[in-house]
Amino acid sequence: MNVSYRSDMSLTEEPPPTASAEEQVELPELTTAEQMILPFKVLISPLKTFGQLAQKPAAMGLISLSALILLVTAVTLYTSATRIIININGQPTNLLVTDYFSPWYVGVFASTALNVFLYWAILALGLTLISRMFGGKDTSWRAMLVVFGYVSSVFIVLYVVRAVMYLALPSIDFYFLSTWPPTSESQRSQIVQLVQDMWGPLYAYQLTNMFTFVALAWFVLLAAIAVRALRGVGWGRAIAVAAISFTFTLLLFGMP
Q: How far apart are alpha carbons 127 and 227 in whole angstroms?
């Protein structure tokens, strides 16, 4: 403990010195393996992980994040197809064993993956632009776009929950369809009505819909933590940036 003598010869305690930004210990570079598990670390320990990413933006982890999102998207679409029954030559037939499955699956997977990427890109860009408008410490565009990209880790959990939901639900016999996907507005309306009649009362369906809103709130919270870590602003401004950016993305693309 440092002490000093005043003119009246009494002892006073000096406050402990605080390290300046330049004197802070620099974080070591993350290994490739450590970067690849960053999407999970963001979900488990967002405050610590975004704090580390603010100092060392790791783009490599976005590769594993992209791969995981594509994987769970593919699994979710496949499990949804297992619950679709259509009428082929008067016989109820699972969509998986029909000639309609492959072209439908490839087309829907491609469009879903594109929408997720656009959702991700627009949200990250929105957070970057709006956070600059709200002030805070200077941060490079690359660092912000990389770090904000990790907010989309929530998609992994969201689609896994949906895949589990489909496995827990009964199949639906769309007896009025002999091809897939539906081609007319009346057929799509019938599908929506039948889904509500068959799945609406079931807890698995209701809980998954509720979890979607939880995931959206989680999305905004992660975005606010990332803004605070990168820009050094207060929680109020960080939450405002996250909410505005997410609302804009939601208006463009709807529910993820």
A: 8
